[in-house]
Write a structure and sequence with these properties.
The complex is a heterodimer of chains A (321) and B (286).
Chain A lengths: L1 H21 L7 H34 L2 E4 L3 E4 L3 H7 L2 H33 L5 H9 L6 H11 L6 H8 L11 H30 L2 H9 L4 H12 L1 H17 L2 H7 L11 H11 L3 H26 L9
Antiparallel strand pairs in A: 1-2
Helix pairs in contact in A: 2-14, 3-14, 4-8, 4-11, 4-13, 6-12, 8-11, 11-14, 13-14
Chain B lengths: L1 H15 L5 H26 L20 H9 L2 H32 L5 H10 L9 H10 L6 H9 L2 H12 L4 H8 L4 H12 L1 H16 L3 H6 L8 H11 L4 H21 L1 H13 L1
Helix pairs in contact in B: 1-2, 3-14, 4-7, 4-8, 4-11, 4-13, 9-10, 11-15, 13-14
The chains are: A mainly alpha (321), B mainly alpha (286).
Main location (chain A): membrane
Protein name (chain A): Sugar ABC transporter permease
Membrane topology (chain A): Multi-pass membrane protein
Chain lengths: 321, 286
Amino acid sequence: MSSVAAQENRRATVATTRTPASSDRPRLSRKHREWLAAGLFLAPDVLGLLIFVAIPMVFSIVLSFFQVSGFGSYEWIGLGNYRRMMNDPLFWDSMKITGEYVVILVPVLFCVSLGLGLLVKQKLPGMGAYRTALFLPYVISLVVVGVLWKFMLDEQTGVVNRAMRAAGFDGKSWLGSPSLALGCLIAVTVWVMMGYYMIIFLAGLQEIPKEFYEAAKLDGAGPWTTFRTITWPLLRPTSFFVLLMSTVAAITGGLDLIFVLTNGGPANGTSLAIFYIYQQAFGFGEYGYASAMGSFLVLIMVVLSAVIFKLTRGGRFDDGE
Amino acid sequence: MASDAMARRAHTSAGRRRPLSSRTGLTVLAVVLSLISVFPVVWMVTSSFKTRATVTDGNLIPREFTFQNFVYVFTEVPFGRYLWNSFFISAVITVAALFFHSMAAYALARLRFPGREKVFGAIFATLLVTIPVVLIPLFLVARQLGLLDSYAGLIIPAIFNAFGIFLLRQFYLGLPKELEEAAIVDGCGHWRVYWNIVLPMSRPILSALAIFFFLANWNAFVWPLVATNNQDLTVIQLGIASFQTQYTSNWNYILAAATVAALPMLVLFFVFQRQIVESIKTSGLK
């Protein structure tokens, strides 16, 4: 904030000293030319965000009150879609699975990434290579990730079961039972995303002034005390960011991976809400009904974001500077 | 055999430094975790050189190397076309996005106009709206605009996201203003200041973002799945996904296709690793 204010003051002085010279310019004053320039600079992105993000978002809510049939005929049905949603056991199953998925994935991903961040912050020989290795899965598309893990988790021929049998265990039908498949989906997501959040945690950790750690060392604090009294509180803005992003991503993302790895199965065991909504819309053409469920999901996401914001007091994230 | 290799590796590196200090422990941990992280990717790449008969034999290194899978993938399926589509679409999106976002970010960071903070707030709010959330209305809007089944339909909606605007604005707020102010005093218009001064100064962040955008769009799947039906417009990720359902147990072909799709991103990552990591770091910090 302060830098903007300072900048404005400075610009204001520049502008006032220039007033005599610019007053003989035709038509537009300096100030208005600046407004015009700003408008033109912003126009493409603002229009694009309006048409492809904001309007669809609003449209989605509007749509939820309509029955959309086949190609293009809309019929107002009030809260009909929402009533249907309340009584749709498949939807609530998918919400329950989403709940389990989020409640397991977000904390696990958080802890793994934070652990990795703390690990790769250490000055050890070859640390650059370890960072690279841990980040690598993130650059691969979820489609390829799905294909790759499907191959590795195959019940008969997959390398995971081979390793288990070699170690004296029975192989498991990883993608063949609902709860195991959900577990696999979570594990694979952690594998893909851990490097990304590791880097974010690393950046946050590197922001913490070294003096704090030196002081703690002088006081004879052990690693746990140091973590609890210095790292954890000072890392709060980063923790907020990671929690928020990973929760939002867990609720609305991962469609690609579900499509390829499990296709919602077995027995709808990995049919997360976002997948069920997709099926209703693009499988059965139920755009109105799917929009109602989508709006409900967004509502939950907003509430969760607010809760996370409250819990972490928002870190420094609030004013963007 | 994989866990074997890991254990062996961990053993030797632990054995080298005699007293089991915490440094050694951490190094062992880092090595083991790195191997676990990389192993699936290595497994995919080496398996794609195996024959149909040996692809599931459980060896990390193929006993007989074959390039036949790659030949098959390119000759039996229009994979070249898929790759070109993905490349073309990602490149156009990246260039257009960088251009528009840097313009918008420059205005938000430097130009003074009424309602600036409100505009920024509104743009920032769209960060939480992800493609899956607006997929249905986006599809209907695109259908209304006649954008389905066209390059334009794959490209235009993907250009606009607040993430790039946000990062660039942060970057511009941190740039020294003196040069721009001097240019304005000299009578330069805002466009010339942007084009001749601001844009050249933003090269580092633009290249970091370029890689990030290219990667994200190369890997995109859900929007192309919804927005296209036409074989000629199939992008690589869609190609892989449908190939995979057609050739269910021909893992040698499927893995070769997957390797082809992943390879450009792996190369990009190894070459521009620092830029990618830097752009992620800035996104988390501010």
